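Final report, closing paragraph on structural work. Over the funding period we assembled a curated collection of sequence-structure pairs, and we close with a single example.
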Amino acid sequence: MGSPRSILHWGVVCALLAAGSAAATPASAAPEPARIVSADPGGDRRETVTVFSPAMGKEIPIQIVHAADPAPRPTLYLLNGSQGGPNQSGWDAQTDALEFLRDKDINVVNPIGGSSSYYTDWQRDDPVLGRNKWQTFLDDELPPVIEEYLHADGKRALAGVSMSGTSALNLAIAKPGFWNSVASYSGCAQTSDPVGHEFVRLTVENWGGARSVENMWGPADGPAWRANDPLLHADELRGTTVYLSAGNGVPAAPHDTPADRRVQEGRIPLPIQITFGGPIEAAVHYCTVNLEDRLHALNIPVTVDDRLEGTHSWGYWEDELHRSWPFLAQSVGSRIS
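Its predicted structure, as stored:
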């Protein structure tokens, strides 16, 4: 070991070299902010706005319906199901949602993309589904940008269907108080128990084609699955008004018959809708009842439409949007008619 003086000398030299190296290294560029890239008017207060997401490093198309009244109005965010919305798989093509909401005093924001992503932040990029940081995008990046563009009033509701029914609950839980209300249509509120985990895996891997569901929340017994289980974190919904709906899986008229327009248009074969949509909705109903019971136990108000019929299909979700509209409107101070 050297003398105290030599040690001091080399300490000073090393400090000066480190300072010089730091001074010579250019400061890292500030993160690129979320921003509107383009706006493509579609007429009749509808347009497609493209928003850049720094978290995902890509541009996300957003379908917009401006409120009927130009004064600052609340915003309803509509999340698509497991296919994410492209190729006529979302609210716009499968339902009358955008037309139904067009004369309402509320802005409508319908993001396109996120197939089989559960609109959550994935731990790792997936070779098939790429980078998914949807929770960051929907909770943090998109609202300030799009609401400024819409001249919105800062009140907001969130509604999801099927896969995104789970997502809507998790987005509200992740940011308590940010969403005035949340509506989950046929969304399974359990993800970390064996039944819930298998349902998520089927959505992500079998139907979505992802390489591995573990790229999303890690191993099945890992903490991220429990962190993203709405049933386990139902207490974080306190202060957010909640709407839940689900059918029991039993086929019924008019949507589980040849009379349904989606069946007539060939969007889904009726036997598949009944054979697969029936059991799925029955499982979702089980999840929904469990969350309802949990919220009641916590003395958290919840509005529930417990349908005694119906499969896991768009016709029922179109009906649910109509039925839940008074709830959504009241939650953000919009007129109902």
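Confidence is low (pLDDT under 50) at residues 1-26. The longest strand covers residues 35-43. We thank the funder for supporting this effort.
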